Description:
The protein has 418 residues and is mainly alpha-helical. It has one domain: Orthogonal Bundle (Proton glutamate symport protein). The protein has 17 helices and four strands. The protein has a two-stranded antiparallel ribbon. Strands 3-4 form a two-stranded antiparallel sheet. A hairpin with a 2-residue loop joins strand 3 and strand 4. Helix 2 packs antiparallel against helix 8, helix 9 crosses helix 17 and helix 12 packs antiparallel against helix 13. The protein is globular.
Amino acid sequence: xxxxxxxxxxxxxxxxxxxxxxTTEESQLFGVLLxxxxxxxxxxxxxxxxxxxxxxxxxxIIASIASLGxxxxxxxxxxxxxxxxxxxxLLAILAGLLVVNITTPGIIDGQPAKDSLTLxxxxxxxxxxxxxxxxxxxxxxxxxxxxxxxPNIVEAAAQGQMLGLIFFSVLFGLCMTRINGxxxxxxNRFWHGVADTxxxxxxxxxxxxxxxxxxxxxxxxxxxxxxxxxxxxxxxxTVSAALFIHMFITMPVLMRLTGKITIKNHFQAMTPALxxxxxxxxxxxxxxxxxxCAEKRAGISRKTSSFVLPLGATVNMDGTALYECVAAMFxxxxxxxxxxxxxxxxxxxxxxxxxxxxxxIPAASLVAIAVILGAIGLPLEGIGLLMVTDRILDxxxxxxxxFSDSCxxxxxxxxxxx
Length: 418
């Protein structure tokens, strides 16, 4: 019997806790230090994630943008849909940013949680990041936009300058929609082929996630015991609170203002889809039921639902964008970095774009968080620890994603009188 990946990861976390509690930093197996084994497999897993970032981001964004621009999808209906999705995603990210700045899950007893989480600290590199980040203000936002246009795209890719790569990919995708039909088809097939190949590669890497997560968690528990779970528990409730605010406060207000829709009736209509999204943690798998609930229970026309909902399942990920922002801020706090307004603006901007570009791929959040951390100059070592709480949070943010899609369909149908 094949065990689902999320169950494999949960089992590996349970075994890692046991292994960590019953071993010490000097424990050996066949003459090899277990800590070195943990370090090897943990680093290997993180390196594999880093390896796929550039081609995955570039191919996914170009393919997504090019698809939006085809078949006159960027007409009046498309413009309304994209505008709503951008606004709702931005509001979700800002909700996450507000809550994470209030709860500061990366700060435990007034100190950064890097020791509790056994995050590797390169003192020279960390000091360099502090010098870059400290003292910045709103005026430095101009520098962010300058970094969006790299003079050498190959150099930007080699150095992991993701802002430049994202901007190039968006521009490339948009321009693809304006060229000769024959060449456009060739490029479309090429970039969709690359994107699909990278998705397969991501799936392959994620098959080894249980081993990587086991190594990362076992290493942490060996050094700190169960103390590492305190900041992770605060992080879990921070994400949960932000998702709750967005789903039950922000979206109802947005729907009332833009579509004058009664949220109670809409929520009741979409309940079957929301429960399915929560249980499967997949927006795409829930899409048929989402469309059925929207049309038969919420009274949204097929014309609107058949365009807005599939598009939303591909590019609109409010819960995911919120999670990316909170996770990046959590890791920054754990490293002891006090991020300025300009740097937090970078987090918001990159979270918004990556939630669109990599939404439909497995482990999308991990890849997107890696992109955000790279954009603000933070190490990726904290990503493995996020897997401890990732499954239940994935279920919650998927329900938020689907709910946001349905809200967009309802508002746009109201505006179209359909």
